[in-house]
Amino acid sequence: MDAKGYLTEASAEMEAAIRSYIPDEEPMRLIEASRRYPYAGGKRMRPAMVLAACSAVGGDRAKAMPLAVAVEYLHNFTLIHDDYMDGDEQRRGMPTIHVDFGMPTAILAGDALFAKAFQIMTELEIDGERLRDVLKYVTKAVWDLARGQEMDTFNEGRIVPEEEYIETIRLKTSVLFAAAAAGGAIVGGADGETVRAIEAYAMALGLGFQIFDDYLGVCGDPSKTGKSAGNDIRRGKCTILVTHAMESIADAAVRDEFLGILGDADASEERISRARAILKAAGSIDYARQTAQRKVDEAIAAIADLPPSRDKDFMIALAEYAIDRDV
Predict the structure, then answer these.
(1) Which of 52, 132, 134, 316 has the highest local Cβ count within 10 Å?
(2) Where are the domains of the chain?
(3) What DSSP string runs through 21-85?
(4) Are 288 and 259 in contact (CB under 8 A)?
(5) How far is CA 13 from each of CA 47, 51, 68, 116, rounded to the nearest angstrom?
(6) What is the DSSP secondary-structure string of 211-226?
């Protein structure tokens, strides 16, 4: 199974629906800002997971489409706010929304997508109990995501234990994957045990995805990722590479040298290369990749009992793709 091919198909399947919920209204400046990210495409992993989970448990994926769109809108709501908080100037090859439209409109565009997502979920054709279950997953995910983002922001410039790092990325990244997958399974009519297994799959996948993202933040090819491979180091982000290095570097002078580079917003490319070399020598780069692999293995094991299907094959392939990509 080619995960990227399935994602391309699912994205095309969702395109009309994604574009159908934001009508032309005044002020058009806000409408255009709100449309910018969801209309721009991207991997659309989370909404694809909604559809795949629904189909994998024998459901009608067309009935899950409103949830898929809602999840995509929620994801893009977080991206708008993240970009402003991080000061990022580009996303998907375009200026970020706060750069093009200004901070007030960017915040309002994120809020608008948040509200629209919950409006869309009222269109789900499922009974009241299942709708409440979907809403419980999604609302809890958004709450937890905010907690994780605050932890991630607060941890910049600090060294935290690996356990705290894992909890941060679970909240920041995994919970929306989990809500998407569990929600799709609920819409598909899955029983509680199956929903929990699919939730566990997505939670582990999200961890592997974010750990690998942190690896790309240090070792990725900027021409493919669209971001400088040194930005996480310059911002002082305490990723799994950093937590491992702090426990593994025996030479105090080398440790102090690394800490002197970490968080230096003006660090030269030469100093970033030196920090990368220190991480490599400490085994921290390999450790990050190995930990991401373990999380993917956990994800695949969680859905072992699902019946064979193209959608299950995609879910397995997606987990593998999460740690085998260049962007």
Answers:
(1) 52
(2) 3-321
(3) SS---SSHHHHHHHHHHHHT----HHHHHHHHHHHHTT--GGGGHHHHHHHHHHHHHHHHHHHHH
(4) no
(5) 11, 10, 11, 20
(6) HHHHHHHHHS-HHHHS
Q: Which residues on neighbouring strands pair with residue 91, listed in sequence order? A: 94
Residue 26 CB burial class (10 angstroms; 0-12, 13-18, ≥19): exposed
Whether residue 261 contacts residue 272, with contact meaning beta carbons closer than 8 Å, is answered with yes
Map tokens 């969801």 to a residue. Answer: 38
Tokens 């373990």 appear where? 294
pLDDT average per 10 residues of sequence, the chain (327 residues): 93 96 96 95 93 98 98 96 85 88 95 97 96 97 96 88 96 96 98 98 97 91 70 91 96 96 94 96 97 98 98 97 85
Identify residue 236 by its one-letter amino acid code.
G
CA 34, distance to chain mean position in Å, is 19
Tokens of 41: 């495409």
Q: DSSP class of residue 107?
A: H
- Residue 90 parent element (H or E): strand 90-91
Task: Tell me which amino acid residue 292 is.
Answer: A
Architecture of domain 3-321: Orthogonal Bundle (1.10)
